[in-house]
Amino acid sequence: MKNRLGKFLVVAVVGVFMLATGTAIAADTIKLGVAGPHSGDLASYGIPTIKAAELVVKDINAKGGVLGKQVELLVEDDVCKPEVATNTATKLVSEGVHVVLGHICSGATKAALGIYKDSNIPVMSPSATNPALTQSGDYPNFFRTIASDDAQARLEVDFALDVLKLKKIAVLHDKGDYGKGLAEFAKAFLEKDPRAEVVLYEGITPGAVDYSAVVQKIKRSKAEAVIFGGYHPEASKIVTQMRKKRMDTIFISDDGVKDDTFIKVAQKYAEGVYATGPKDVSQNPMAIAANEAHKKTYGADPGAFYLNAYSAAIALLNAIEQAGSTDYAAVTNALRTKDVETPLGKIRFDDRGDAIGVGFSMYQVQKGVYVELK
Asked: How many domains does the chain have?
């Protein structure tokens, strides 16, 4: 017992010394953290990322892993809430993650990023679109495989004005980092265009049962369309209440609404709704293979941001392989300088962390499914 205790103390002292001098003992596995909403109202956005990570890791491990080591998944739920996301990030850091796939919602992502930054951990989101996450320069450890909200808002405004030939627009948002950020861009783009008039700009309270007050404001404003920044739980209620009042006001929203759950909840009232979302890459051979792998493994079609998450997992693990280590500087440099083939196409990341070559398309609910408009 004495000898075993002595050996333990030697190892412990060496471990403390190594940490103090900034030298890490090589881990037995490459640890990939996966953070997002895995329960609650927005779980349909987070669970597809877990499945994407599982499939990518399974494939890579079967081929020998990364740097000759197996990849280990560490999955943590943040419920898309900033106050939970900080705890999620702290836990993943304490568990020794090398890179993180997530978070999903912009507010939760922003809350967690500082923790990862202080620990020199690269983070890549498949869905957090708030422009400030990359444009502020505050988070050099952050990357994403989706375009930012300024591009999304630009597409929504151009579609309303150029394609639908509308003039009077109501802009709504859910007061969150994601929804309000997108709405502010849309409002600014509209106000700069002489063809457009913002007849209503309003924030709503997420989770409310009744949105009849704001629906009535939309009606009184005589808006031809609503541009909404937010997520499907609120959008489905607003659209449903609008249609029950026999309002034919066009509803245009974002990738927070371009989800099958919106259609399932709004049902017949979802018909005709427009929403921006990642470009359709269904003809990409890697996308076809990734989708088929999901169907074979889980017996269902993949959900929201699945291909963006699949691509992010590939990009993160490829960067470690290219860097030859899990060193922060080497991995982030590889992300910015090395192209990688993904279901989204060949991508790499600019100095801000945005994926080069990734963008949005406009979709419309037609006969109960979202269809990309060409």
From this structure: 2
